[in-house]
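$ fold --in a.seq
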Amino acid sequence: MRKYIVKRLLLCILILFFVSLIIYSIMRSIPTSYVESIARQRATLPGSKSYSEWLAQLNAVYRLDRGIIEGYFGWLGDALRGNFGDSWIYNVPVTEKFSQVIWYSFALSSAAFILELLIAIPLGIIAARKQYSRTDYTVTVIALIGISLPTFFFATILKLIFSVKLGWLDLYGMVGRFYDQLTPWQQVLDMAKHYIMPIMTLVIVSIGGLMRYTRTNMLEVLNADYIRTARAKGLSESRVINYHAFRNTLIPIVTIVGGTLPSLFSGTLITETLFGISGIGKTSFDAMVAGDIPFSMFFMVFLAVLTLLGTLIADILYAVVDPRVRVA
């Protein structure tokens, strides 16, 4: 196992090198450029240099006057030393801006993901055990509703009910207007209160797919020969389901869980925008639209690292949930 992990890590480094090169090439090729906008603004100032002179100077500062390969290796050298540059639109170091907003999105996505697992997997198993019953049809309808309707629709409905009609929750924002006057514990509760509707929105639109996936895999496992053998030996139904069937159902679910690691840090652009949450989703989108190459490069490479790490974790978990898997 140790040799396998070392080999996979070396392969991940090689893949990450080419992925970052591709990302840098794409970022250098997009038409939007914040540097051009700054050059235009400074050229309009009284007694300022011309637009072309400002553009040449700014391109030299940010290494945009070099070729893509030369510019990439310059960026890579700085990145290996932990220097990812300053954000062009936020005027602070990239890592500083990233650390300011990432934990808002991580808290939101993590809470929604945990609730999704706690709700979707048990309901999928129940639906499979009671196939073609009212329970199964109810779970199927709930899953289809969650899959079919868009995020902004659920968010609007939740706002209408809990904010407009009942007045229990605020429409927007992460904290209330009197947040600074609260005690530390009250501040935590105030922020948690503002996260209720965003988390509910993410859970509603996400549980459908995992619920259906769990149901399908559980049905396949329940029809296997070894399940019939276990029942013929006189094992209780709870042991057949919880020990034999559920353990094998986890094998394909591990793939989904491993693939969700990047999503915990990538933010949820639509949900964050609808509820006024200054998370990494909205921040990275604004940076991308403005052509902020330093911030966009760091964020995209960060997601690439999480994707590779999530895949590695999923492969290792296969051996945990399935003793038949042996990593050579």
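$ fold --in b.seq
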Amino acid sequence: MIEVRNLTKRYGNHLAVDDLNFTIGKGKIYGFLGPNGAGKSTTMNIMTGYLAPSEGDVQIDGVSIVDMPEKAKARIGYLPEIPPLYTDMTVREYLGFAAELRKVPRRQIRERSDAVMTALSLHECADRLIRNLSKGFRQRVGLAQALVHDPETLILDEPMVGLDPKQIIEIREMIRDLGKTHTVILSSHILAEVSEICDTILILSGGKLRASGSPTELAMEQSREVVVTVTSPASEEKLLTALAPKLVNGKVRFSSGADGLVRAEITIGKEKIRENPELASDPRKFVSELLAQSSCPYYSVEVMRSSLEEIFLELTGEQEPDASPESGKERADESSL
């Protein structure tokens, strides 16, 4: 278990981390989410002993990273945003070197190197120079050096930055597999990466912890926007009748398009999301089933934006992207379910 207590880091007059407090339990994947400059990397560097805090402490299984750094570091594997690779070494040579630095007993170095190369599918390039490897394989070598001493906790700073889509999928699957046997903490400013693989998300902004919880728990704290497209104005009453029993007090705004279709923009309040938790992750299935049960014809059901994105934008103060102009004439009438 990792306990972060009153953690603060200053660089001159700049406050990078501001009195952080949180606890990391064992056996889960945690995600640090936040915009650039939120304090994610600074927090991770302190947790791994690469930086000293201005105030506060980090306890790794009860061992202080400030008072007993060597003992605490032995329990952690760390992959920085730029992997610490020696490109003139082969993969096997480098992992042997990393194992020595981590004080793996000499008789176990070969065994540990082979174990991590097997786990990360690196045997095919074991005797190749690191400089000749692709970006994706270099990232795997970076993961291997973080695992070579068999730590309980793995800390990854932006592990998928700069990778192509195929490599991102491969690294994502590796992290999922590692999460079965390790506590994994990873940082990213990309919401999709974190929400895809993490059990618990911690949202940082301005050096402060703004929110924490599972993706579903965070989503339940935000209203949802759903757009249902029906085939004619005559379907509006059927739509209201179909959705009213489950979405009472929601707001519906109708608008007509040049194609003759009618769009119904539905706001589902968070009190209704708490009553029906399935609305938190993706309300499309829930709404579609209600429409089908009432034989209400519809063209499509879509989510305007995920609620986790809404929370991220609200808590971090990020600017909302410009909306594309809607075609057709918007009608001014607004109805309540």
